[in-house]
Amino acid sequence: MLKTNVDKLVKISVVGEVASPVYGRSVYNISAEGAPVILPGVGGITYNVRVGDPACGWEADHVEPGVSLENKENDPRYGQGANTALNVLACVGNEAVVVSGDAKGAKGVVTGKHGGIDHVLADFQPKDLEKLMLGDKMLVKAFGVGLKLLGCPDVKVMNIDPRFLEALKPKAKGGRLEVPVTHIIPAAVMGSGLGNNQAHSGDYDIQLFDESIRKEYGLDDLRLGDLVAIRDADHSYGRIYRKGAVSVGIVVHTNCVTSGHGPGVTTLFTSSTGKIVPKIDAKANIASILKLRTDI
Question: Where are the alpha helices (DSSP H) in 91-225?
Fold first, then answer.
């Protein structure tokens, strides 16, 4: 059994509301092939795309599965501080409870964080999605920030609820952590999201524009909610290339047509010294691990 400092963690409230889809001044995206396209993107309530579904193949760009949350409160002392707190403190596996509107009382699960737009993503059952409305508020009892694996000092943990960690059942031995993943990905194809100095919020993208890489690593069957390992990637203090490092994250949004972008990954574990051992498991998806769906 993993030894952690879970008894020392603080559980604290954060709140978000269902965010509307948004477009910039131009509704067009320019694809990596130079074609202007108009596609669904970030935000909203996505009724037919959930964790467990394919990350690729949709007529979409950065679509967020389930429900997209943001906090619009603005304190002049902190700018976007309330939304930053939502994005940093909420952890994958936290419970999200609807506290307003027709779906009041419905319970979902935080499944990821999307940088740039700074949304927290949550999965709900289809019957609850139908009752939700843009602007409905959700309470998240944020729990997980500060989590440490006491037997694996070279493995940093972030963005994960201890409940999800327990359900994932990683194995610690000799200072190494064995983690189930669906795919192993080379850091060379990681794109948008590089350059931040922390990985406790947001994500970065798997570029899928090279057909040979997609085939070699089997990336065409990536699913939303998959746990994936990224080799030669260190996320200890931001996302950088470091030979021998290993990071593990969760796929949080769909593939993209825009250059430098692709399915996004929110970090869960990282080791600058390679003390993470990925173990291929086709069922290493949050929808299966937390039994969010029975049809996959």
Answer: 126-129, 162-168, 211-217
| Residue 79: strand pairing partners | 75
Burial class of 48 by CB neighbour count within 10 A (0 to 12, 13 to 18, 19+): exposed
Q: What is the pLDDT of residues 36-65, one digit of tens each?
A: 999 999 999 999 999 999 999 999 999 999
pTM of the model: 0.96
Q: With contact defined as beta carbons under 8 Å apart, do 87 and 118 qualify?
A: yes
Please tell me the class of the 156-289 domain.
mainly beta
Q: Judging by DSSP bridges, how do beta strands 276-280 and 176-181 pair with one another?
A: parallel
pLDDT, tens only, 19-33: 999 998 899 999 999
The residues spanned by each domain of the chain are 7-142, 156-289
β-pairing, 137-142 with 95-98? Answer: antiparallel
CB-based burial label for 101 (10 Å; 0-12, 13-18, 19+): middle
For 7-142, CATH number out of 2.60.120.260, 2.30.110.10, 2.40.10.170, 1.10.240.10 equals: 2.40.10.170
